[in-house]
Backbone:
């Protein structure tokens, strides 16, 4: 009987504690802790394919086009900020070594014959950019983003005359770049990505020929990065 009385008193106390003013008091809601695995500095490696187009306009003669294609790979680094609404803003810089070249044999034409007189070669050796990134994070694992900013390219033009004497001239081109990419978390600190960029550069005058060159290219690269905590 004593145990029954004590049990009844304890049950009544629990019921009384659960009610306040006739209403059931629920425990306070504790929202889940959201871990931001995107914000912060990062560095990475990237490699891919470059397809260029150089429009060469000699001082005398018709303009012609060279399409240097090749590989481009290097380093990138940046910093991301993730907002509570899963919008991501970032800044990124990269530099790539490039191996892409194309040459064209030029001819002298008259009424009797066509004679090769020179070879014009155009090549790109490196690429660099400084860009902003804006995108959206999906399920804390995927990022879809757009990117754009300033870009630079190291190029070289070579001219071989009829006597097989070659002269070369190097230039640094400046321009703008736009692109887009998708990024995926492999671990909390390691990301993999695929990115496309279109680069357009201002026209540059070369003493070879002499000639002016208007250059642009398309780049697609895969990369992997490490984010620091």
Residues:
């Amino acid at each position: 009987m004593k145990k029954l009385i004590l049990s009844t008193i304890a049950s009544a106390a629990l019921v009384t504690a659960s009610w306040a003013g006739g209403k059931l008091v629920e425990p306070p809601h504790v929202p889940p802790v959201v871990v931001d695995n995107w914000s912060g500095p990062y560095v990475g490696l990237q490699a891919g394919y470059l397809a260029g187009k150089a429009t060469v306009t000699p001082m005398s003669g018709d303009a012609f086009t060279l399409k240097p294609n090749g590989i481009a790979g290097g380093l990138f680094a940046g910093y991301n900020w993730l907002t509570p609404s899963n919008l991501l803003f970032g800044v990124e810089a990269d530099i790539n070594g490039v191996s892409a070249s194309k040459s064209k044999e030029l001819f002298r034409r008259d009424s009797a014959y066509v004679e090769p007189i020179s070879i014009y070669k155009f090549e790109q050796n490196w690429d660099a950019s400084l860009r902003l990134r804006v995108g959206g994070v999906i399920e804390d694992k995927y990022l879809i983003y757009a990117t754009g900013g300033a870009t630079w390219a190291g190029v070289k033009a070579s001219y071989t005359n009829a006597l097989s004497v070659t002269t070369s001239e190097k230039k640094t081109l400046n321009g703008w770049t736009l692109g887009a990419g998708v990024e995926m978390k492999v671990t909390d600190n390691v990301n993999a990505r695929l990115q496309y960029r279109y680069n357009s550069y201002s026209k540059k005058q070369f003493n070879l020929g002499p000639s002016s060159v208007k250059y642009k290219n398309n780049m697609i690269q895969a990369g992997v990065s490490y984010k620091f905590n």
In short: The domain at 39-227 is CATH 2.40.128.90 (Lipocalin). Helices lie at 2-18.
